[in-house]
User: Fold these one by one.
Assistant:
Number 1:
Amino acid sequence: MEMKVSPALVLCASVSVQLALAQIQLRVRPSPSDHLPVPDLHEDPDPALEPGERDLAPRLLRRKLGSSFDPVFSSIGSPTQGNGTGITLEDGISLAEAIPLEFQQLDFTGLKAAARTERRVRRWLWSYTRCPVLSVWKDLGARFWPRYVKEGQCLTDRSCSLPEGMFCKPVQSVSVTLLRWHCQQGSRALKHCAWIRARYPVISQCGCACLSFTHS
C-alpha cells in the first residue's frame, strides 16, 4: 500500500532545509563582545566619600558636562517618574517594513513555492534571527551624574539560528559621558574630591553569534 505524504508536510520539511542553508548564506554577523553590560560597581560604603548637597547642584553639574549630556541614554531624575516605564524592547516587525537586502537575496528556489510563500518565509526568517535590544534604566548611585543610565541587554532565552546553536550577543556599543565623583587616596582629613568625566559603555546593538567558551 502506497503511503501518501501531505503536501503541507513536504513544504514544511523543505522550508526547514532551505532555512538552514539560508542561515549559512548570511555572513554579515559582526564580532560580538562578552564584556557588556558593565558589571555592578562595588563602592566604598564610607559616607565621607559621598558628594554633598552643594556638590549635587544640577546647574553646576549640567555646566560641567556641557554638550556631552546625553538625554537619550542618561537621566537626571528617576526615569520611572513621568516616563511610565523603565524597560523598553525593540520587538516586532511591521508588515509595511521593507525586508533587509540580505534576506531578499536568499536563494529559495529549492522550495518550489509561490512568490507569496517565499516572502512570508523571508519575513519569518528575518523575525526569527533578529536580536532586539532590551533597554533597562540602571541607577548608578549618587557618585555618578546623571545617576541613571539606559543600559542595553541582549535576549538569550532562545536560539536565534537555524539550526539552533547561536544566541543574541552584544555586537555594538556607544559610550555615554558621565560625571564621576572621585576622591584622591590619602588621609581622610586631607582628602580632595571632585567631579571628573567618565565614559560608560552601553550596548546599542545585538546580533546573532556563536557562544564563546573560556578554558580554565
Number 2:
Amino acid sequence: LLTFTGSSAMVSLHLVPRLIALLLLLPGRIRSSSPVFNSLLSDLQGDPELEERCRDLLRDFGRRYESYVKCAVPSARPVRICENCHIQFEMLRVVYNNISSDQSEGSGSNRSATFLLRADRLMLVYMLFQNLEDVWDVAHCSQCLSGDGLSNITLRYMAKLNQSLSCFESQKNNHSELCRVCRADYKDLNEFYSIMEKNQTLCIDIEDSMNATRRLWSKDFNCSFPREETVPVIAVSSFMLFLPIIFYLSSFLHSEQKKRRLIHPKRAKSNNSLMNIQDKHS
C-alpha cells in the first residue's frame, strides 16, 4: 500500500497508473467534472455504502432546504414566515438531525455527520442550517407554535385581526364612520395583543401584523380613541395646573386672617391702659 502524506486515504497499487494518467491529462489542476476524477474519487472513498448513504442524506437536505427557502422568501413582506413555513422548517430540521446523529452500521462514530458536517473548513451544510436556525430563533417563531401547528392563542389573535381588517375593508370609503364602527374590534385586538406581549407569546408575524394594523388605524384612517392609562395622566396634569392657583389663594386667605388677628392685641392693650388709669384715680 502507498500512503499520501496528510491524508487518511490508502491507495492500492493498481490505482497508481490511473492516478498518473489523470495528472498527465490535467496538468496544473484537477477538474471535479472529469469522469476519470469521479471514478478515482469513488475508489479512494474505500466505503461505497457509506458514500451512497451520505449522498442520500445530502440530497434530502438539499430538497428540504430548497422547499423552506421557497416558502420563506415570499413570506418576507408582510412577515408570515412562522405561520407559512413552520412545516418546511421542521422537515429541514429533521433531516439535519438525521445527518448529525447518523451512525453507519458497525461504526462507533457518526460517520455521515463527520463526512458531511466536519470534513472541511467551510462546513457548508452546518453553516447553511445554522443561518436558517438563527433567523428562526430571532423571529421567536417557537412562541407562536404548539406541537405541529400554530398555538391556540395565536389562532385567537389571527381571528381578532381578521375581524378588524374585515371591518376596515367594509368602511374604507368612509373614514369617519370607520372610526366609530370598528372602534370596538380594534380595541379588543389591541388589548389581546397586550396580553400576549405580557405573556411573551409574540413572534415576528404577530408583531408585524399589529404594527401594520396600528398604522392603518392612526395614519391612514386618522382614527384614535382615549386609552385608559391616559386618565390618570390627565388627572395629575390638571392637579399640577391648578396647584399654583390653590397655593396663591390659600396664601391670600391666610394673610387676611392674620391681619385681623393683629388688630385684637391693640384693642386689648388700650382697654388695659384705660382700666389702669381708672384705678389710679379711684
